[in-house]
Amino acid sequence: MQIGFDVGATKIESVILKDNGEEVDRSRRDCPKDYISIVQTIKDVVVELEKKHNKTLPVGVCHPGVHSPQTGLVKNAPNCVWIEKKPFQKSLREALNREVFCENDGNCFALSEAIDGAGKHYKIVYGIILGSGAGGGLVIDKQIVSGPNGVAGEWGHNQLPFMAAQKEELKTLNLRDAEVESFVSGLGLAKRFNKKYKKNLKANEIFELYRRHELDAEKMIEEFKTNLAMSLATIVNILDPDVFIFGGGVTNEIDFFDEIENLTKKYVIGKEYEGVFLKPKYGDASGVRGAARLGRKSSY
């Protein structure tokens, strides 16, 4: 058995998994807003669970961002600033006096689904998380591929080359506005819609208007479909995954995946793609389940 933790901006979720994937225990707590308290909360949960089950257990943790191989500090975690630029893994190892496996939340999502979820029958599994941001993770042969810099799979932060010309023309374009995430994430969709139509709506409200055939929402979601398909085609042209598995809050709003799949083929070289698009077996629980798998499989 192993304990897995999912550390997010608002919650710390834990689960104990048996080797066969059966859940033994699960809990959820509010995430403190300071680093020391986050480490202490995880320690408290571990002590509580080990006392309950009368055994010392391995620990895996998934979180936004990654640990820099060069510095050992967490980087690229803007939505969880309490661990940004902190030696999170080192602190947890010292607090728990044992090995602790830490990994990006998108990678843990993909690992969980690749091992015994929707992607268990596929070799190359690409996890896509469409929520407030756009994250991802790559798993090949049931092993996370994170790369020497820890950023493999971060498709949402790819710069769109055509935006460079606009940047030169406008002189005001923020580089973050040129990333894929700005076009396919919930926050990005809402920002673009509200700016264009002088509204103040959230992504789920825009999707609801789309389903009611409101003209402005229909136009924006049609753009969203194209932007998402073009972005996915870029991944196909580089990695050619057997399966895309989609998670996150925005994914729950999408009821047109067949259309996205066909559009993606349009932008793939040769206009052919035999991969499949699937929803996750474990939904939002895939991240914490993947964390409970860390250490059982090589992370690179």
Automatic annotation (TrEMBL):
Name the InterPro entries on file: ATPase_NBD, ROK
Among the Pfam families in the record, one is ROK
A GO term for molecular function: hexokinase activity
This chain belongs to the protein called: Probable NAGC-like transcription regulator
Q: Which organism is it from?
A: Pelagibacter ubique (strain HTCC1002)
Provide the organism lineage as a comma list: Bacteria, Pseudomonadati, Pseudomonadota, Alphaproteobacteria, Candidatus Pelagibacterales
